[in-house]
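Input chain follows. Return structure tokens only.
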Amino acid sequence: MAIDKPVFTRGDVEIIRREQLYKRFFRVEKVFLRHRLFGGGWGKEIGRELFVRGEAVAVVLYDPEHDLIGMVEQFRVGAMDEINGPWCYEVVAGMLEPGESPEEVARRELIEEANVEPCRMEYICNYLSSPGGSDEKLHLFCGLCDLSQAGGVYGLPEEGEDIRVHVFTAGDVFAELYSGAFNNAAALICLQWLQANRPRLRTQMTGQE
């Protein structure tokens, strides 16, 4: 049985006013609004702080011929207190700029962060990272490529990027999937998708299973 869509839509929200609280690299607004209630009628005016992040793209690299997965490692200030430290294994990612499609961003970021050009891209899904307080939306891809010679340190120094590319066997990655090594949503979702689709991708690209 199909899952019904929510009854309410954007038209069931009235924006009363917005206040800009902070604006530098990121932006924070306070949005005053009211919305329809499940029991009928409209709720009272409420204020909600919103971290304005916009749309982003993330790509997991997979080499179906050699059964290899490419990940990037970089410092993340939000992970300062993590048990494994603030350097995280992630998928390649970047922000969507005006006029760009998600796939264009994916291909651009793969060159900048990993020096890899994929031979084929597969769209995985999109998701909201934290809709209770942020408008950030991520588009996820799998980039199929040759990782046999991949590796090195990349990124844009003028943006403070220092990104190391790692190549792991698929078996090693999936054995550590829930160990805490990949402790961010984009990496976990991409890797879970890849684990489920790996046999299909290997058959389609190489005839192997």
